[in-house]
Design brief:
The structure is a homodimer. The first copy, chain A, has two domains: about 80 residues, Ribosomal protein L30/S12 (60s Ribosomal Protein L30, Chain: A, 2-Layer Sandwich); about 140 residues, 3-Layer(aba) Sandwich (Alpha/beta knot), CATH 3.40.1280. Chain A has nine helices and ten strands. In chain A, strands 7-6-5-9-8-10 form a six-stranded parallel sheet. In chain A, strand 6, helix 6 and strand 7 form a beta-alpha-beta unit. Chains A, B: It comes from Flavobacterium nitrogenifigens.
Chain lengths: ~240, ~240
C-alpha cells in the first residue's frame, strides 16, 4: 500500500521545484527502472503491481494495486511499476571527444530522444543551457528509455562554458557549409538550438564552424527539421567515418 | 459564430471513422493552414479568431472567439484558427525514385515527423500499411508542419505492393550490412517498421537488401533508435551522395 504522504511526495516530483527540494526523481516501467538499478542510481523506493524486482531489498519495495499506481503515475496509461531514485550529484564535465550542447531545448520528448541518440552514437557528454528542460522531468526520463544512466549531463551557463573551451564549436545554419562535404573532427562541441528560435545570437557568435544540412525537397518550402531528427543526422555524419 | 452542428461535425473529425464518412479533416494554426490553402487542398470552412485570411472568400470564413475555438480544437493550447478541408482522392503511386514504406507506424507524432523528413529529403512517395495511423489524424497533420501537402501518401496492402515491385527493397536489421559502407541507389523502397516490433516477419521476407545503422555506444545497451530518428539517419545516408 502507498501512504498519503508517499502519494504527496511523488506527485510533487512531477514538478521541477519539488525534485530539487527533495533531490529525488522517478521513473516508470520495468525496462527503464532495470537500467537505472543496474547503473549508479540510488533507489529511494520501488512501487510495483507485480511480484517482480526480487533483487531489490524488501524494505525498499512496496506492492501496490493499479488504482494506487494510477494516483502516482505521470503516464495516461500507467505501466506496472514506478521507482523513486535519488538525483545524483553532477559529475565533472568530460571535455574531450564529441560533446553535444543544447541551447534551450524545451520539449521533454525532444531532450529524451536526443539523449537516446547520444547513447547510440557514443556521445558521453551533454551540456545543457540553464533554460533547457530538466533531465529528471518524468517525460524526459521516459523518452530516454534508460539512456539517462549512460550519458553525462551538466547544466551550465552556456555562454561562459563555450567562451572558455579550446574545442571547435559547430552549429547548423541556413548559410553554413554542406555537412556532407565537410571534414568533421572527433573532438568538438556540436550546438543544437531551441525548437522555435534555433541557436541564440549570443551563442552563434561563439560558433567556429558553420554547417548546414542540405535540403533536397522544394526550395523555400520545408522550413526546418525537428531538433531531434536534425541531431540524428548531424551525429550520424560526425560518426560515420570514425 | 460557430453553430452546434458545426461543433458536432468538427468534434467528430477527431475520429478516423467520421473523417472517412464525411471525407473531411481539419488543420490548426496559420502556418499549416496557409500551406494547405496554397497547395491543392480544397477548403470546406475556416474558423478564425482574428481578421486574417482575407484571400479566403467570406462565405467560407467565420470569425469566432477563443471559447468557441477551444470547443473545436484538438490542441491543449489552441492556436488562432482551425480549417476544415476536403480529403483529396488518393493519387496514383509514383513508383520511381526513393519510396518510403511504413509497416504499421502507430504514433501520430512519428508519422508527422517522418512526413516532414520526406519533404526535406525530397521523397515524393510514402506507402503506408493499412494499420499505419491515418495521415488525416489531427496530431499527424499538426506534426507535419504543412509537409502533408507535398508528399504523396497511399495506404495499401503492403505485402501485395512489395510482392509486385521491381525496385530493390531495403530494411534495417541488427544483422544487416553497415549502411555507411553500402552502395545505396537513388531508386528503391525503404521499409520502416513498427515502433515496438520493427519490421514484421512477412515484410522481412520481401526485403532484398538488409542494412544496419551501426551503434557506437556500449554494446547491448542502447536497444534501439526511435523510428523517426532512424528514418532521419537512413534518408540522410541515401541522399548525401545524390
Amino acid at each position: 500500500m502507498v501512504s498519503k504522504n508517499q502519494i504527496k511526495l511523488i506527485s510533487g516530483l512531477h514538478q521541477k521545484k519539488q525534485r530539487f527540494v527533495n533531490q529525488l526523481f522517478f521513473a516508470e516501467g520495468v525496462k527503464v527502472i532495470q537500467e537505472l538499478l543496474q547503473s549508479n542510481f540510488e533507489l529511494e523506493h520501488l512501487y510495483t503491481t507485480l511480484n517482480d524486482f526480487e533483487t531489490v531489498q524488501s524494505s525498499k519495495r512496496t506492492l501496490i494495486n493499479e488504482q494506487e499506481l494510477k494516483k502516482i503515475s505521470a503516464l495516461s496509461t500507467p505501466n506496472s511499476c514506478l521507482a523513486v531514485f535519488k538525483i545524483p550529484a553532477e559529475k565533472k564535465i568530460i571535455d574531450s571527444g564529441l560533446i553535444l550542447a543544447l541551447d534551450d531545448i524545451r520539449d521533454p520528448g525532444n531532450l529524451g530522444t536526443i539523449l537516446r541518440l547520444c547513447d547510440w552514437f557514443g556521445i558521453k557528454q551533454v551540456i545543457c543551457s540553464k533554460e533547457t528542460v530538466d533531465i529528471y522531468n518524468p517525460k524526459v526520463v521516459q523518452a530516454t528509455m534508460g539512456s539517462i544512466s549512460r550519458v553525462n549531463v551538466n547544466y551550465v551557463d552556456l555562454n561562459v562554458f563555450l567562451a572558455q573551451t579550446k574545442l571547435p564549436i559547430f552549429g547548423t545554419f541556413m548559410d553554413g557549409d554542406n555537412i556532407y562535404q565537410s571534414s568533421l573532427p572527433q573532438d568538438g562541441i556540436i550546438i543544437m538550438g531551441n525548437e522555435a528560435n534555433g541557436i541564440s545570437s549570443e551563442i552563434e557568435k561563439l560558433v567556429t564552424s558553420r554547417l548546414t544540412i542540405p535540403r533536397f525537397g522544394e526550395l523555400q518550402k520545408t522550413e526546418s527539421l525537428n531538433v531531434a531528427t536534425a541531431t540524428a543526422i548531424i551525429l550520424s555524419e560526425f560518426k560515420r567515418n570514425s
